[in-house]
Amino acid sequence: MSLLVRNLDDLALDAGVTSGAPLPGRGRRARTLMWLGVAVLVVLGVVVAATLVSGSAGDTDLPGRNASPSPDALFGTDRLGRDVLERTLVGLRLSLVVGTSAALGSGAIALLLALAAVAGGRVGAAVVTWLVDLFLALPHLVLLILITFALGGGTSAVVIAIAVTHWPRLTLVLTAVGREVAASDHVAISLALGHGRVHVARRHLVPHLLPQLSVGTVLMFPHAILHEAALSFLGLGIDPGLPAIGVMLAESMRSLSAGHWWLAVLPGLALLVVVKLVDTIGTSIRALADPRSHHL
Predict the structure, then answer these.
(1) How many other C-beta atoms lie within 10 A of the C-beta of residue 62?
(2) Alpha helices, DSSP H only, in 54-120?
(3) What's the pTM value of the predicted model, to 2 decimals?
(4) In a domain, 57, yes or no
(5) N or C: which end of the chain has fewer CB within 10 A?
(6) Residue 98 is part of which domain span?
(7) What is the C-alpha to C-alpha distance for residues 68 and 151, in angstroms, rounded to an integer?
């Protein structure tokens, strides 16, 4: 029966190719590649634009302060006459840098703990499980605030706080994949040949975990950006002298009652757009890496 089904599938595939009809998954895969390319180009465009305007983002113009959006200043100006669009671009670039650093650090922690859980025997698995349960049980934002406050605030404190709090769910995914690999025949043969756990982890586990790690790190990236903005808004994150999005939103609270809505709405929308673009990059990479789960 299975042979008959396979032959029918082959005939349908051949018929679709020879008749020129598009295969069902090709359209979805093409759309995924298109959205991935658009998202990457826009994010890179933000970084390039921020680099070009970084020198003038802090220039003040007191006669033109609190100007509403216009062709000369698309996002308007703030209380010191600084161009809000330029400051928003520089702030988004800073958020991308902080988010990248924090996501990479958290991904490294997740990989090390997953290897310890799989290759460390019962003791390693028990310790990692206890750590994951502990961090998942704690209120996430409260833990971020406590760690950032304990480290004295600032950019480095934000990166460390996000990195040490975002790894549990990725660790669970990597551990599940690692256990499947550890139960395979080639790992059993490697152990029978006398190879130790370190060799098995380095030669067999890590290569299989890297695809999941890369996708998980990219998907972690939007959360890191939003948490960086939240900490900066609370005054515990980026240095207030830097044009971070969270800092700009915190400063705009003083002017909203005066009708200066653009100081909060436009930078906030820009942050949401960039976060959505980064999330699109992550989901697209996951779809391309595992087409069956996304019917591509």
Answers:
(1) 9
(2) 84-119
(3) 0.77
(4) no
(5) N
(6) 27-52+84-294
(7) 38
C-alpha closest to that of 108 among 147, 159, 154: 159
Angle between helices 24-53 and 262-289 (to 10 degrees): 140
Q: Are 225 and 91 in contact (CB under 8 A)?
A: no
Q: Is residue 128 part of a domain?
A: yes
Cα separations (Å) of 206 from 73, 146, 199, 238? 50, 33, 10, 34
Backbone φ and ψ for 261, nearest 5 degrees, come out as -65, -30
Encoded tokens for 175: 């551990």
Give pLDDT tens digits for 111-130. Answer: 999 988 888 778 888 999 99
Identify residue 147 by its one-letter amino acid code: I
Q: How far apart are the C-alpha atoms of 171 and 88, rounded to whole Å?
A: 34
The angle, 0 to 180 degrees and rounded to 10, between the axes of the packed helices 262-289 and 245-252 is 150
Neighbours of 264 (CB within 10 A): 18
Residue 98 lies in a domain: yes
Q: How far apart are CA 251 and CA 59, in angstroms?
A: 17
CATH number of the domain enclosing 155? 1.10.3720.10
> How many residues belong to the chain?
296
Digit-coded pLDDT (tens) for 233-265: 887 877 777 788 888 888 888 887 778 888 888
Q: Residue 63 falls within a domain, yes or no?
A: no
